[in-house]
Write a structure and sequence with these properties.
It comes from Candidatus Methanomassiliicoccus intestinalis. The chain is mainly α. The protein has one domain (2-52). It is 79% helix and 0% strand. It contains two helices and no strands. The chain has helices spanning 2-24, 32-52. The radius of gyration is 24 Å and the shape is elongated.
């Protein structure tokens, strides 16, 4: 009975590994510094817009 549980667990783990392997190969790949740069530009634009168009 214990050997059947071990066999099922291994098969489930193998299926999850195969699923996540296929999932990671899709989509755009961004470098971390690109993300930091984009965030910095967005923050700068928001700050400049606050000075140009101040709230009433």
């Amino acid at each position: 009975m214990a050997s059947k549980k071990k066999g099922q667990g291994f098969q489930s783990a193998a299926g999850l590994i195969r699923y996540f392997d296929n999932e990671t190969s899709k989509g755009p790949v961004l470098k971390p510094w690109s993300v930091v740069g984009i965030i910095a530009v967005v923050i700068a634009v928001i700050c400049i817009a606050g000075f140009v168009w101040p709230a009433a």
